[in-house]
Amino acid sequence: MTESRRILLVVHPARPEVHDHALGVVKRLTAAGVAVAVISAEMRGTPLEGAPDLISADPDDPARGCELVCILGGDGSILRAAELSRGSGVPLLGVNFGHVGFLAEVERDDLDVTVERIVSRDYAVQERMTLEVVAVHEGRTVFQSWALNEVTVEKASRERMIELTVEIDGRPLSTWGCDGVVMATPTGSTAYAFSAGGPVVWPDVEAMLLVPISAHALFARPIVVGPESRLAVEVVPRTEGAGVVWCDGRRAIDLPPGARIQVHRSPDPVRLARFAGSPFTDRLVEKFDLSVHGWRGAARRASETSAETSTGSSSETG
Fold first, then answer.
1. CA distance 180 to 198
2. Ramachandran region, residue 27 (left: φ > 0; alpha: ψ -120 to 50; beta: rest)
3. Within 10 Å of residue 133's Cβ, how many Cβ atoms?
């Protein structure tokens, strides 16, 4: 009996230039015996609506029965796909049609090769840490969610700061008047945490970051803690106005003064499909367009040294 194969295709619905590429992907995959499912409601008004080769995914569990989630879009679309596949264990493969596309594995120019590798299952799977977050107010849970990149507690009003007390492993660290605090994974270290002045952390490092945003304090530097640490942020009761907690910039709830936000490592990682690829250093250089002018590299230096030695020996012999 032939194995039935299926992938979930997630396409940015508001990017018309992506839709023609998506139709081509569907055609090539179905011709190779790989069924393609989409969330029908998200495809309304696009060329993918009603396409004959497509399967309508279960909106409540769209990744069920799929071997892979393929995303055509930017980092926002990949974060959306992570929501859709949460808890399924199905890996995500992003094709960048956005701007930076730090979570994407390949660029749009590599789409044909990407389809071939999906068909041949020629990819590895890498697990990325995620965070669990719970917000409590007056003994009642008011919000519960998760994040792949970061959890942020921010001021809700531009006119005033928010006052936050930060706690690590059950002990208070400091109280800051600030614009907010970012609690990030290594994956999120190149996102909001980076913009707030945090360090870049390699994906294979197990750690969590805590980065204050515009804090009015002498001790307000980014902090890196172990993966099993438990972070908490309390909105100081005398704070005027409310705050807001965000997860990956996608899921949020307003916070009253006195709310407590608890963050720890989640037992459910996000799985990313990766091609045998370049080191993370190369990804940083490419995505941030970093200058490496003047770099010679160990291999080149060794080659030049060998050539100089050979030339010197020839001269002495002559």
1. 13
2. alpha
3. 23
Domain 131-265 has CATH 2.60.40.10: no
CATH 3.40.50.10330 fits 5-128, yes or no: yes
CA distance 220 to 199: 14
Degrees, nearest 5: CA angle 97-65-32: 65
Q: What is the pLDDT of residues 28-48, one digit of tens each?
A: 999 999 999 999 888 888 888
Cβ atoms 179, 155 nearer than 8 A: yes
Distances in whole angstroms, Cα of residue 54 to Cα of each of 2, 47, 90, 117, 123: 20, 12, 19, 20, 24
> Which phi and psi (to 5°) does residue 97 adopt?
-120, 15
Q: Which of 149, 150, 148, 179 lies closest to 164 in space, CA to CA?
A: 179
* Residues carrying an active site annotation: 75
**CA distances for 226 relative to 27, 213, 229, 307, angstroms:** 46, 21, 5, 47
CA distance 30 to 306: 54
- 8 A C-beta contact, residue 30 and residue 48: no
For the stretch 148-194, pLDDT in tens is 999 999 998 887 889 999 999 999 999 999 999 999 999 999 999 99
Q: What residue spans in the chain does CATH classification 3.40.50.10330 cover? A: 5-128
The segment(s) of the chain belonging to CATH 2.60.200.30 are 131-265
Residues ≥6 apart with Cβ < 8 Å to 287: 100, 101, 102, 190
Cβ atoms of residues 232 and 259 within 8 Å:
no
State the DSSP H helix or E strand holding residue 29, giving kind and residue range, or none if neither.
Answer: helix 16-31
* Tens digit of each residue's pLDDT (9 = 90 or more) over 198-240: 999 999 999 999 999 999 888 899 999 999 999 999 999 876 6
